[in-house]
Specification:
heterodimer; A: about 160 residues; alpha+beta; Jelly Rolls; 5-stranded antiparallel sheet; 4-stranded antiparallel sheet; globular; B: about 270 residues; mainly alpha; 14 helices
Chain lengths: ~160, ~270
Amino acid sequence: MNLFRLLLLLFAVPGALLAQTPATTKSKPSPLEWNTSDHSPRSRALELAGGFSGDGYKVRDGFWSGSLEKGTPVLIEVNLFAGNDYWFSAANLDPSTRLKVSIFDVHGNPVGSQAFDEASRAAAGISVWQSGRYFIRVAMTEGDKADTCMVYSYK
Amino acid sequence: MRHRVFLTVLALLLAGQGDSRSESLAAKDVESAVFMETIAMPTPGEFFIALGKQCQPNWAKLLKSSTPPTTTDRERMALQLGVFVADGFIAIEAQDGQGVKNTGRDILAITKKLNVSQHIIARSQSISDFAEESDWNTLREELDATQNDVRLALLEQNDNALVVLTMTGSWMRQMDVAAQLLAEDYKPGPSALLVQPAIATHLINRIDALPDKTRNLPLVVGLRDGLDSARTHMLKGSAYNLSAAAVKELSATMSSLIAGTAEPSEKK
């Protein structure tokens, strides 16, 4: 790891961790939050994404969900715009699993400067410099198989 | 000692972080990627935020006055619905609470005609309340969710063609606004926002897959031709920008498409 990356981590990581603090409770819940009343992979993914809302991120209503197996990651196409910041958050209900979310550009090169993973939930973030098609890979790195959901937020 | 503390803190920080870097994807992986419209299609919310950062538009000027739908043509109504949703996001960017409420009212009126209003009545009230409170961030999520609810309701009543047209209307209005801004004040960097040939192709493919009865309607034939022209203009530049001339051509195409959605229904 070069010095630049080390310095970047030292400054960026605490910010990213702080950004995961849940937002202050609103007086009137958004209907998007009504979905969190059930205990589902989507509600957990929304919970994780909601952690970024304190930093001004808006959660998009669309999501991917499906059965995810170790060794068979899913690759999801998205269109991202220069100037925007994004977080892609994935989760499932099996605490024995571990997830990893990665971002790739249109050429298949890994991009994204921030990542988070904790047991059965994970997220990856990117500040986009070039508008266009990107790919989000959600992989199970530990565990067997579990219903998983990915949501995304932007600002 | 200080050195050890530093290393310990660093190790803890790194332990909480997965490495975002991975090996590159193989071409076959990219080909197998899932394209889900609810995720891959740009929403007006995120598109306009990017446009705002790059072009600092006068959103209030871009906001159209409320025009309650008069047509009884379901396909045209679906296109207009998509345009209205995008207009709602313009009102949010303009921080115009009354404009948001007006657009919300138009959306409700058109969904009534399409028989799906029961699915969004609660959201419509929330939109009005959040607009009253100037809660712009929540409004963005609410309007996005409204669009998705309408989509699900249309799918539930087997109106698949209307789903395609609503989605197309929303995307057309996004492109129309951005192209109009950049045609008036061309900037090479932000013009990359208009380079979306893959989305245009996806919409054209969706229209091509519609039942003959819908696909052969003059409205839909004109729409497909317009999308094809838009794609041609988008392919004139690189992935990084469009020329000023291509932006002007794209702007003219998108304006014409938007004007086409508002024309009165042809007599059958």
